[in-house]
């Protein structure tokens, strides 16, 4: 069995007086897309933010690529090779699309320093970004902002992408575009941990799935197993796939 | 490839980019409106240059303060101490170079003033670094404590300045070549005010270049909007903040030299007195916005001079009145920063 790229063991997180994560155990396999499902308030976003060091774990271990990252600062974690797309997308609205991308390319001082082939590949995934290259990102639509957020996360090769609810608030046509882009991304062997509430979206992309409830992982397995078991969906998510469609 | 290339209405539509130039128009509108009120064109020219000079000096001092707030939400009520420090350092440096400042040669005058400015910037920047580490760092994210402790820091700083230079006012005469006026027709414009405008424009140009053309500037602009995302992208916002704080303190030191020369007298209380003006300026401009700070500074300078000439009693509260009017029109200031 291969060593997981990311491993959480008994992770507890407190935000002020609130105890949010109650001993999360999670393994993310290299090269796979794992979907983290669960109701509102289950602890999905907190899990991503804890991995990223934005809300540091109060106890437990977070190992990434063989090293402990639980005590590192957010920039140090980012330098280890983790990209994060928050739920609100984190777009710098007053900056242009070009400037947003330049910021994400840590190794580049100017746009010309960005790997041209990589940039072309990103434009291939999200053509709208090329068209609106010089426009303020704040003027983009919700779907375009989500594309920019994901594009920023992959403008330089990273080992792991953490993406929080990429389908939230998007029109169905844009969601299909996002699914196509993620499929393309999966072909590059990028490891992805995706938080989602849209089970239909998750089902089309996920290799593995983990379900959270009450700040704990209550189920972990393959997406195929969950998608094929309506009873399990009812028990874990309160809804069947058929109800989602 | 072209995974997301399917054309959709969402992809095709984007609002036209229209830079907001309305606040910029306030300056010429205000200046033109003052022409008939001042009674004579030459008086208007003199007042306008005085207002622009005052505004430029305020901008030099306030620009760092607004960035510090924008980047870390830090309300530094101690900013005035760097102004006072800069001005007192200028009295020491220029006081030892009277042979140069009393010379008729502009070159020799500049050779005296430039080291005074450099010394003020270096020392104020260094003190700023200590101020950030010792006073501000322990109260990140605690606005009420920031107000209290930075005000306390300024009081301690001013007392230390009194220990070194004494409590009394110290004259800071202009170098000889900076004195007097240039005549444009019948309008007299003080040479030092012209110099202040030039220095202010130079500082604005450098700042604009750094913010718009360099990656550090890009990081500052991004950090003002969403510092957590900047950290998630792998940048240490704390280091950036220290750099901005030190640069802001150094600029306040430079502004202190210029304000001291403008007033030709330096007092330990001068920083505290200007502090109020600084907060009016950065609130008018939109907290965290350098462009807004620039417009706000010039508006404050012009209004103070026009009101001082036309209605001296109104001048006492003209800047507060200006702030109220601007906030009624734009509650977040002229150029609000799009924060998360």
Automatic annotation (TrEMBL), chain B:
Keywords associated with the record: Amino-acid transport, Cell membrane, Membrane, Transmembrane, Transmembrane helix, Transport
Family annotation (Pfam families): BPD_transp_2
TM spans (from-to): 24-45, 51-72, 79-98, 110-135, 147-172, 192-211, 237-262, 274-303, 310-329
Membrane topology field: Multi-pass membrane protein
One Gene Ontology term of the molecular function aspect: transmembrane transporter activity
GO cellular component term of the entry, any: plasma membrane
PANTHER family reported for this sequence: ABC TRANSPORTER ATP-BINDING PROTEIN (PTHR11795:SF442), BRANCHED-CHAIN AMINO ACID TRANSPORT SYSTEM PERMEASE PROTEIN LIVH (PTHR11795)
Family statement: Belongs to the binding-protein-dependent transport system permease family. LivHM subfamily.
Annotated protein name in UniProt: Branched-chain amino acid ABC transporter permease
Organism: Candidatus Geothrix odensensis
């Amino acid at each position: 069995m291969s060593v997981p790229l990311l491993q959480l063991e008994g992770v507890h997180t407190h935000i002020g007086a609130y105890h949010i994560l109650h001993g999360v155990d999670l393994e993310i396999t290299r090269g796979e897309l794992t979907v983290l499902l669960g109701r509102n308030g289950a602890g999905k976003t907190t899990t991503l933010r804890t991995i990223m060091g934005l809300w540091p774990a109060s106890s437990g271990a977070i190992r990434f690529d063989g090293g402990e990252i639980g005590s590192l600062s957010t920039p140090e974690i980012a330098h280890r090779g983790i990209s994060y797309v928050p739920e609100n997308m984190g777009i710098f609205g007053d900056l242009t699309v070009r400037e947003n991308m330049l910021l994400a390319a840590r190794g580049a001082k100017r746009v010309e320093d960005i790997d041209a082939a990589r940039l072309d590949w990103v434009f291939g995934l999200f053509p709208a970004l090329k068209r609106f290259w010089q426009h303020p990102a704040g003027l983009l639509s919700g779907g375009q902002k989500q594309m920019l957020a994901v594009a920023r996360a992959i403008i330089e090769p990273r080992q792991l992408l953490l993406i929080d609810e990429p389908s939230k608030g998007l029109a169905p046509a844009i969601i299909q575009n996002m699914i196509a882009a993620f499929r393309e991304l999966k072909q590059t062997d990028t490891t992805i941990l995706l938080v989602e509430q849209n089970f239909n979206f998750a089902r089309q992309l996920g290799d593995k799935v983990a379900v959270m409830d009450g700040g704990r992982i209550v189920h972990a397995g393959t997406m195929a197993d969950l998608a094929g078991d309506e009873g399990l969906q009812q028990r874990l998510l309160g809804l069947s796939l058929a109800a989602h469609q | 490839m072209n995974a997301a290339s399917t054309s959709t209405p969402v992809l095709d539509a984007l609002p036209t980019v229209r830079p907001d130039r309305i606040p910029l128009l306030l300056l010429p509108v205000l200046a033109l409106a003052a022409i008939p009120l001042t009674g004579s064109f030459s008086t208007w020219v003199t007042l306008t240059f005085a207002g622009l000079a005052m505004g430029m000096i305020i901008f030099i001092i306030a620009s760092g303060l607004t960035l510090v707030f924008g980047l870390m939400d830090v309300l530094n009520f101690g900013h005035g101490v760097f102004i006072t420090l800069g001005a007192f350092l200028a009295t020491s440096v220029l006081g030892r170079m009277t042979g140069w400042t009393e010379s008729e040669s502009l070159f020799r005058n500049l050779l005296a003033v430039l080291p005074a400015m450099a010394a003020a910037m270096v020392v104020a920047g260094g003190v700023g670094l200590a101020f950030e580490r010792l006073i501000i760092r322990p109260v990140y994210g605690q606005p009420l404590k920031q107000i209290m402790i930075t005000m306390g820091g300024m009081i301690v700083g001013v007392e230390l300045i009194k220990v070194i230079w004494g409590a009394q006012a110290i004259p800071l005469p202009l170098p000889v070549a900076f004195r007097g006026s240039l005549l444009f027709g019948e309008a007299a414009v003080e040479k030092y005010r012209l110099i202040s405008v030039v220095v202010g424009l130079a500082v604005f140009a450098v700042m604009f270049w750094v913010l718009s053309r360099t990656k550090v500037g890009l990081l500052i602009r991004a950090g003002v909007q969403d510092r957590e995302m900047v950290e998630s992208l792998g940048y240490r916002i704390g280091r950036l903040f220290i750099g901005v704080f030190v640069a802001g303190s150094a600029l306040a030191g430079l502004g202190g030299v210029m304000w001291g020369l403008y007033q030709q007298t330096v007092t330990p209380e001068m920083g505290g007195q200007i502090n109020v003006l600084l907060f009016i300026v950065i609130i008018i401009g939109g907290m965290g916005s350098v462009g807004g700070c620039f417009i706000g500074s010039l508006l404050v300078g012009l209004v103070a001079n026009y009101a001082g000439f036309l209605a001296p009693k109104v001048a006492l509260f003209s800047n507060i009145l200006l702030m109220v009017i601007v906030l009624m029109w734009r509650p977040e200031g002229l150029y609000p920063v799009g924060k998360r």
